Structures are given as structure tokens and as C-alpha cells.
Amino acid sequence: MTRPDDIQLEHMPTPVDPVVFRRVVGHLASGVTIVTTSHGSDMYGMTASSVTSLSLEPPLMLACINNAAPTASAVSQAGHYAVNVLGEGSAHLAQQFAGPHRDKFRGVDIVPGALGAPVLSAALANLECRVVERVRGGTHTIFIGEVVAASAREGSPLTYFRGGFGRFEFERDDEAYRRARRLLLERRYGADTVLSLDEFAYDLDVDKASAFYALTRLAVDQLVRRDPERGYVVAPFDVRTSDEAFDARSAIEAGVIDMTAGRLTPADLGGLRERFETMATLLVGDHFIDFDRYVDANLSFHEYLVSLAGNAALSAAFGQIGLRAVMVRSFGASPLTSQAFIEVQRELTEALEAADTAAAKRAAFAYTELAKARAREILAETGGML
Description:
Blueprint: H1 18-25, E1 33-39, E2 42-48, E3 51-55, E4 60-66, H2 70-78, E5 80-85, H3 91-98, E6 110-112, E7 118-120, E8 125-137, E9 140-152, H4 170-185, H5 197-204, H6 208-220, E10 224-227, E11 231-234, H7 239-260, H8 266-280, E12 283-284, E13 287-288, H9 291-307, H10 312-319, H11 323-330, H12 340-353, H13 357-381
Antiparallel strand pairs: 1-2, 1-5, 3-4, 4-9, 5-8, 6-7, 8-9, 10-11, 12-13
Helix pairs in contact: 4-6, 5-6, 7-13, 8-9, 8-12, 9-11, 12-13
């Protein structure tokens, strides 16, 4: 068999057709993937769930990989990777590539891809990507790859393999995740506690597959992190983490306000107003009507505000702050909040509608101070760390 490093490319492949790309990524349904690459004479691969389609034109994929994993360094050096979407009969592959095995490719049928990455023959779908951008975010690197080859076959995706590795029971696993998040926010586990899969499954009263699903969701929320030596551990959260995130948000938004106030179109302002109204319905009085939906609506409002600058670098920097994780870790620890959050964001919206730069910046900074103060209150109630 020809190894990936033996491939000599005379011409770089052109981006895959958008229609083909759309059909292939339809197989990537919140399932399990294996990200592979090659560098020199070595092949690398790991099971990954933080993989998603990013853009149709051009066709882009996003893969988020822990920097501690050898695959992250290999992808950086090679400049390419392949996303292998597993079918529901390939749970054994997900397990094989999830741990620190010496030879993950043992017994695995592979073919060399267009860019040299090993492509898994047994995968339900394969997307080969050339890295066009790297974004470092905390312990992870986000690799944005232009898709140069894609293929798929009939079948059902492996979705967070559960008992018997059959179809995914969404409601049960979502409930396990919600229960797990509640336990972490209630400080059932201390900061830096190692979460053993067996013990975690026992605490949640679910099977290991559901517990594993919960852990992957918690990792996305940044409530836990993946330590290459110890496994999943509870991520600490303190005042400094909170303050830095909220200060970064206000600094970016203040710059955007300077750039855009008085120059926004009615459509721009209408989009901002629409997002504000959606958010306002989810926080009434001093209670969240639906915390998760509020977080989504809040992020949508502020991401849209930053996007009005029409500056991709600013939007990317804003995305790297990790505000979702900060909001979940702080405000998610208590059902109580304050209507003042909505009122100050209303002031921000109205100030932009009135083209009042100074008032808009005052509201943005006021919102930041409210958020920092509320996070400090919650942290004080929980001993200074979540």
C-alpha cells in the first residue's frame, strides 16, 4: 500500500464543487469524526466532535483540536487534514482513535488522500482539507480548512456511540448533559477534579456512552477540559477569567461603535433591534425565562453588533473571547439575574439608533461593569471559584 508521504503532487487540487460539498457535509450530523493527517513518514489521527462545516462558498470546514494532542502539531506542520465521518457500525474506530495508543492505525484500512492525509476507507464520508487559517483559542487551535476533495456513501452516522452502538437517543443524552452541567455548576466536583468515565456515568445514572456525550458537551462549554495525561478534568473559573473576558468584549465593541455610529443603515439597525427584542423576552424581572436560549440570543446580539464594522479580524477576535463559556460558568450558576442587563442593552440599541456615539459607548461599558459585578457576586457565593 502506498503511504501518504509517498504521494507527489504535481498540481494542487482545486476546491470541491459547492453542490458536492453541500451533499457530503449533510452526513456530519452531530456525530463522531476522526481527524487524520500525515507529516514526514508518520500518520496521526484522533477522535473529534468539534468539527463542523463553516462555509459553502468557498467550501470550508472547521476542526478544533486540543494543542496537547500530537495531531494538533502535526496538522500545523503538514498544513492539511482529513475529516472522516464515522458510520454507526464504526464505534470501534472511535474508541481506537480516542485514546493515546501507540499505533492507532493498526488494522485500519486507509488510502492516501489528495493532500497526503490518510483517509479511512470505512468512513461514511471523507472531506480532505488544506489549512487556510489557524486560530488559537486557549488550550485549542481551530483549523479552518478549504475542502479540496469530498466523498460519501449511503448509511447512518455514528452519533456519540451508545449501548450497542446503534442510533442516538437524543432526549436521554441531552438530559444526561443537562444533569451533568447542573452538577458542575452546583460545585459537586471541585476545580481540577478528574472525571472518571465510570464514576461519572454512575453519578449520572446513565451508561458510559451517555456520560461520554455529556463530557464532550461540557468540554464545548469549557466546563471541563481534556488533559492528555489524566483525561477530562473540571476547568477552574475565577474573577480574573471573568473580568478579562468582559473587558475584552467592551473594548472591541467600543471600537466598533466608534467605527459605525452614525453610519449604520436602517437595515443594520433593524437587525440589531430584532436581536435585542428576542433577547429581552428571555430575561424578565430578575429571572431567566430560558437561560440557554438567553445566552444564544445575547451572543447573537453582540456578535451582530461587532459584525456591523464589516471587519473579519474584529469578528474573529471577538469569537476568540469565549463569552459563551464565561456566561455559562458565571450566570448559569444561579437562576437569578437582573433586569438591569436588559435595560442597559436597550440603552445601547437606542443610542446607536440615535447615532449617539458617546451614549452607546457609555452603555457598552455600563453593561460590562454590570456583568463583572454579577459574576463577582456569584463567585463570592461559591468561594471565589467555580
